Amino acid sequence: MLRRTYDGQDCSLARTLEVVGERWTLLIIRSALLGTTRFDGFLDHLEIARTVLTNRLGRLVEHGVMERVPYQERPPRYEYRLTRMGRDLARAVLVLMQWGDRHLPSEHGPRRRAEHLGCEGPVVVLPHCATCDTPIPDDEVQVRPLR
């Protein structure tokens, strides 16, 4: 039986799941990557319960994935903006989107496509070697323990 948390596991994936591994959290990050910054905007785009959104945004702020920035004094209102850490999740979100397009396609086709701003060509996230900069097919990736 799986525990409710991954505390105590010496695994970067488990630590990552502690922060972003909940369904609504990834959908909030996706909406933020698409430009949503305000609480009501997240509510409209996600059709999420207010309490769930409040909790998830608070956790993302607590972990440094988003920052809470005031945009109005009376009444006090805030925007939720991705930090550098949050923007670094763009590749992970793209990989999950591409996986879903490939393995769980909609009968109407993909709803969105990531495009290169320079030429409007499709963006594909592929692993590549940090030493020789060669693209690496999935079946040529090896993960091995370092300690």
Automatic annotation (TrEMBL):
Taxonomy, superkingdom: Bacteria
Name the UniProt record assigns to this protein: HTH hxlR-type domain-containing protein
Biological classification of the source: Bacteria, Bacillati, Actinomycetota, Actinomycetes, Kitasatosporales
Organism per entry: Streptomyces inusitatus
Molecular function in Gene Ontology: DNA binding
Keyword annotations: DNA-binding, Transcription, Transcription regulation
Alphabetical list of PANTHER family matching this protein: TRANSCRIPTIONAL REGULATOR, MARR FAMILY, TRANSCRIPTIONAL REGULATORY PROTEIN
PROSITE patterns listed in its UniProt record: HTH_HXLR
Domain spans labelled HTH hxlR-type: 11-108
Protein's UniProt keywords contain DNA-binding: yes
